[in-house]
Amino acid sequence: MSHFFRLVHNENIKIYKRMGTWVMIGILILVVALVGIFTKFVLDPGSNADWKAQLSAENAQLTESLESAPMLEAQKRLLKERIALNEYRIEHDVEPIKRDSLWGYMVDATTFTGIAALFTIVIAAGMVASEFSWGTVKLLLIRPVSRTKILLAKYASTLLFALLMLLLLFSTSFLFGILFFGFGGAETPYLSYSNGRVIEQNMVTHIIELFGFRSIDLIMMVTLAFMISTVFRSSSLAIGISLFLMFTGPQLVQLLSQYDWAKYILFANTDLQQYTTGTPLVEGMTMTFSIVMLLIYFALFAFLSLYIFKKRDVAA
Amino acid sequence: MKKPIVEIKNLKKVIGDKTIIHGISMEVFPGEVFGFLGPNGAGKTTTIRMMVGLMGITEGQVLFNGFSIEKNFEKAISHVGGIIENPEMYKFLSGYDNLLQYARMVPVPVKKERINEIVKLVGLEKRIHEKVKGYSLGMRQRLGLAQALLHSPSLLILDEPTNGLDPAGIREIRTYIRKIAHEEGIAVFVSSHMLSEMQLMCDRIGIIQEGHLVSVESVGDFVGDKVNTVIEVEPIEKARAFVEKTLPELNPKINGNELLVSASREKVPALVKALAENEFNIYKISSGNKTLEEKFLEMTEGK
User: Fold this and answer.
1) Which residues of B touch A13 (CB under 8 A)?
2) Which label site among A204, A242, A249, B46 has the fewest CB atoms less than 10 Å from its CB?
3) What percent of chain A has pLDDT over 90?
């Protein structure tokens, strides 16, 4: 085993030998199960028999608003795509995904990356701060290991925990999905629109893609929590600030979206789906711009954590 | 002369505009127990934290076996095992799992046999697999010692190792420390504000006061062979004058109704005889070694 791998192993032991971690894992599984039960037994799926008629009615309405109401170029494009997709469904007899089906439920479950993010933030917030509050930092930092390596091992373990949460979310929603809704409609493709054409896509790929998009937000918030934990040595502060920003950030950017500088705010860039299936928050933003902004924020968080952790005088 | 394990050269620490440590220099050699003595707030812990890299060094150098703690941290610290203040452990892990944590952090992991050997040495084999949560302070100190010895360091740095221990625990730690130093040739650098403790444990002692290293001496020199003798004698003024005249090297002083002299042991009978022959009334006489405590107070009060 390489030295760095052993350091990560150490950090993992500190995460998984604590009760709190297992409570969080339990809650995640429970929430996924409860939503499955709710979808199956409580939610009225509505009749889907005449979905073709519904879609043509929707298209008629969309076409009308497209012609009459003034709107932005991006919004127009979005409506046109929607109409094209609906037409494709009617033409090729591809039924829309129902919520009470395996795929519908799994797509719903991807929104729980929010819970995965919340729990990972709790872990990240404790990574460095707890060593200080436990007093163990004094023994940790007098080992023949540089502070940089220790911090990297801690960050790597945090990301591994995030990955575990996502895998758990994916696999439990798949298992509960089969359990509650069976394999019915498993061959239904996902339709996407690209370069003026509708294409059929594998549903599993689409769900993994959704997880991918949502993980960006997760990674940024977790890195922010990790940084605050390192800089202020307080896990409650790290959890508080990160959660507050995670919940209010997107609304804040929405409010400020009329100003051009809003596009430099972190939260304007964490949702990359705005470029694939939505409209950019501030006009003129592009995927490349957002990725560059994300990388800049990430580098800033990483630099602050490392610099302060390396320089810090450990007293008391 | 043996090569020193620890070389501290003109070590300084400035925090804000306050100088906490004013240029300390000292050396520690293999097989010796070096006591670092000073009142609370003198800068002991700050010095130790700088030595092990927990705090930045403002000026000067700390070398372990020639490796600088600042420039070559990983090499330098691998020669060192330490307990900094109370040994805080991961309470949700067993004692053994705690040791495994530290065993994995050494570039070449410590073998299981070595861990077991150390556990036995500190006498924790019966409860090593219990969670640290349930350990007494004494057991935690012992686990702390085990943690420090795990990677066979050539230097042990112990910051107040007997803090909060009962007398039996203190004696146990003391015995370990002397054994480790004298039998295995490990240098031990131990800080304390407990003077009597240091006297029993150390070979050499450095005294720090307000960030200055006041003196470094061997315990023998420190305590000395001078005997402090207290004589209750009448008339006291005359007696003092008499002693001053006949035996001026005894440096007589009056303290209440007692005469204080500092004489080597063999001089005491002659002094008593002289006093008796000159019609002084002697009511009581007592003498004892000058303790480290007295010496220490003498030294630090003069400042």
Assistant:
1) 93, 97, 101
2) A204
3) 47
